[in-house]
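Quick board copy: two proteins, each given as sequence then tokens.
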Amino acid sequence: MKITINDLIRCRAFRSKNIQQIKKWLYHCKKSGILFFEENVFELTSSTPFNIYYALSPYKSSDINPFPIPIKDFTLFDDLDEDLEFMRHYFEKYYKKRVLDNRYFLFYETEPYVGIHYIWYYRATKERNDIFAASTEEV
């Protein structure tokens, strides 16, 4: 979901908070892994849009990109095919979309974002939506 700090200020839960308090809250949520966004929250202006993702389910309006893996389930495999199959399982579970080719995950960052409760794999490239459209189908 694309939002701004100003959007959050307008929410009832944040009305009594200032920009720095909201940024600190976002930072702690990202550090825990419950939320994910690529940007450095402290460098965002109040009107800069950014994509935010929630670990328990994707927002309907979100770009399809990062996906979480609970830290307790995370595993590194010696075999690339096993790694890609593992990623595929969690991607499909999160987005409810089938990946047609495990090579789709070769475009993801090799070092995922590690939060306290969730690890997030993501693509930092802008071509991700075109690649996704060609590599997936509805379940």
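And the next:
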Amino acid sequence: MKKNHKIYITILSFVLLITTIAYIALDKDEGYHEYRNPVNNGLASLTKFDAACSDAGTSVEGIIFLTRDKNSLSATIVADLIVGGADDMGVEFSIPAGLDVDKVLCSFNDDTSSKYAYVRAWPDGGHSIYIAKANGSPEVITVGGSGTAVIELHLNGKIKLEDINSLDFVILTANKTHDDISIQITH
């Protein structure tokens, strides 16, 4: 019996040793790592904007985050907006040629559908993004309200970063007042 007991202890010790070695070998990637902070990586500039048409009761304010790496850039527009009840023009974001629209998230009047926002591509490049614009859009009715828009943009693959000196945006409210934004690109 003592002999069997020694064999069981030896086998158990061997299994425990193999398990420990395997755990250490396989867990190398799960150990302590240098932490890479994901906050503001590649952030090149912040540009605030503000446009208001007091006659229409429409206003927009926000910020453009411009990020870049060696060969490309992207922009994220975050805007809080209010559209007056009688304003059928809403808010327009004019996006420069050379940038493509990746995604538009809009919470106008807490509605998750796309009925208050739409994107128009222009033949010469560039886009317009409309929020709560009823004039010219049969799908959107004139309605006041408020919300937040997040617009994600990236450099068109046909454009080289070194060929761009600036990005020129126009933020328009009620088709009357605007904020012209020019973000200089340094090379």
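Board note added afterward: Residues 12 and 98 are 67 Å apart (CA to CA).
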